[in-house]
Design brief:
The chain folds into two domains: 123 residues, Sandwich (Immunoglobulin-like); 366 residues, TIM Barrel, CATH 3.20.20. Helix content is 26%, strand content 25%. The chain contains eleven helices and 26 strands. The strands form six sheets. An eight-stranded parallel β-barrel has the order 3-4-7-8-9-10-11-12, surrounded by six helices. A seven-stranded antiparallel beta sheet has the order 2-15-19-20-26-22-23, covered by helices on one side. α3 packs across α4, α3 packs parallel to α5 and α5 runs parallel beside α6. It starts with a strand and ends with a strand.
Length: 504
């Protein structure tokens, strides 16, 4: 059995963990809305048409914020289409995904759904085909108490109290040639600055997210962030980053190291933010919103065929990745990476929440079940609260296709406000368990409370409607505390949540 060592100290603190780190995303894309959260004819549907089986799974995740309504979709979206009587809402061609949007579910309905899911809305405004005027109008509609054209229209449409949406995205991936209304960095920075200024004049209590590069592989990455922030630094509070990973070649060791790329991405964008802040002699420190992240590659070929066959259909089954066990391991490491950067990454949204590259899957008229990636997100959301700690980890390492010295044990820890300690760990070793010894002398008397283990012998194992528990959490060994040192076995190829609590 291989050995690893971790030193933890309450003074080695990275920072407070923002609860919004465990957010998600619902775009008007595929079956995320229609057939996902909303299906009026479903046996579990409530009086508003929302599936109760889905909302139960969402509540278990404890998702604090949901980004909406896009995504690429938002760059061609007229927000006014989504309010008022449903039978008067227009059907529109969605050029982003080659489908037809019915607008049956709109702003009011989604706000109600989010509240029922114990979540908040992170709303994206269209800065592709539209601009600052439409952006300030929707803030007025959503957040102003009354006595104006837009706020009174909200009241007329059935919502007397404001929605109080406090987090807003200034467009989406505006550097991408696939984006409707693509802009240069200067063009986007200027429109984001003016839209942000006007939106905050309507409601000074909102927070704004500027679009960073849609990927670190974009040829303009870095230069885009610098120019955009040079134009809108004073107006915004966060800059977005997006990243997806895949394993089309079946290289599991290389795939499981991809969160090292994620860490480099975060640190590079942080450096650019601070460079612009330094240039401006600003005391404000910009934070990051990692508002799209996940594994995404399983459905690519299928999606091309669906669009070719059913172009302009409604709620086409697009981006329906079926996740396997190794996907869950990488998702766990991606969550660990965000916790290790919790001083600057304050918001994150797994893309997406239901059916579309999602932890939750449904069948129209049928069941809803948790995919493999559901479990690391749920565990991190439930136990990764409080203060992120900076661990010192000594672990055996390996080399892979893109990286050298990849630690076999990928781990971090959080300190709860109640004094509890949670260790999150992924063992990347394909065959061997790791004996982990933790130096916990700085925390006083602790005792093992729980070891949650996610493991399967087949890295390609998946969950289905008929077999939803193929990859699901199980109890691991509790480990042993001896004189301020804690020892536990971490099985090969596993996601682990190791919890310790104060000894009474």
């Amino acid at each position: 059995m291989k050995k690893a060592r971790m030193i933890l100290d309450r003074d080695y603190a990275i920072g407070r963990i923002d609860r919004r780190l465990y957010g998600s995303f619902i775009e008007h894309l595929g079956r995320a809305v229609y057939g996902g959260i909303y299906e009026p004819d479903h046996p579990t549907a409530d009086r508003h048409g929302f599936r109760r089986d889905v909302i139960d799974l969402v509540r278990r995740l404890d998702v604090p914020v949901v980004r909406y309504p896009g995504g690429n979709f938002v760059s061609g979206f007229n927000w006014e289409d989504s309010i008022g009587p449903r039978d008067r809402r227009p059907k529109r061609l969605d050029l982003a995904w080659a489908t037809t949007e019915t607008n049956e579910v709109g702003l009011h309905e989604f706000v109600d759904w989010a509240r029922d899911a114990n979540s908040e809305v992170m709303y994206a405004v269209n800065l592709g085909t539209r601009g600052p005027d439409a952006a300030r109008n929707i803030v007025e509609y959503s957040n102003h108490r009354g006595g104006t054209q837009w706020s009174d229209l909200r009241i007329k449409n059935g919502a007397k109290e404001p929605f109080n949406i406090k987090l807003w995205c200034l467009g989406n991936e505006m550097d991408g040639p696939w984006q409707m209304g693509q802009k240069t960095a200067y063009e986007y920075g200027r429109v984001a600055s003016e839209a942000g200024k006007m939106m905050k004049l309507v409601d000074s209590g909102i927070e704004l997210v500027a679009c960073g590069s849609s990927s670190l592989t974009m040829p303009t990455f870095g230069a885009w962030e610098y120019e955009v922030l040079d134009q809108c630094y004073d107006q915004v509070d966060y800059v977005s980053i997006h990243r997806y990973y895949g394993n089309p070649t079946g290289d599991t060791p290389g795939f499981l190291a991809r969160n090292m790329d994620m860490d480099e991405f975060i640190k590079t964008v942080v450096a650019i933010c601070d460079a612009v802040g330094g240039k401006k002699h600003s005391r404000k420190k910009l934070m990051l919103s990692f508002d799209e992240w996940n594994v995404w590659y399983h459905s690519n070929a299928q999606d091309r065929e669906i669009v070719k066959r059913d172009k302009w259909g409604v709620a086409l089954p697009l981006l329906e990745d079926i996740y396997n066990f190794e996907d869950a391991l990488l998702v766990g490491s991606m969550l660990i990476t965000m916790l290790r950067n919790a001083d600057r990454v304050k918001i994150a949204c797994m893309a997406q929440l239901v059916n579309v590259i999602a932890p939750i899957m449904t069948r129209n008229g049928g069941g809803a079940w948790a995919q493999t990636i559901y479990w690391p997100l749920m565990h991190a959301s439930r136990y990764g609260r409080g203060t992120a700690l900076r661990p010192v980890v000594q672990s055996p390492a390996y080399d892979c296709s893109d990286y050298t010295d990849v630690q076999l044990l990928d781990a971090t820890a959080t300190l709860g406000d109640d004094g509890s300690l949670t260790i999150f760990a992924v063992n990347r070793d394909m065959k061997e368990d790791i004996k982990l010894t933790c130096d916990l002398r700085a925390f006083g008397e602790l005792r093992p409370a729980e070891h949650i283990l996610l493991h399967h012998d087949d890295v390609k194992a998946v969950n289905t409607e008929d077999q939803p528990d193929t990859v699901s959490p199980q109890k691991g060994g509790h480990g042993k505390v001896d004189g301020g040192h804690f020892t536990i076995r971490v099985p090969a190829l596993s996601w682990n949540v190791i919890r310790l609590e104060k000894a009474e």
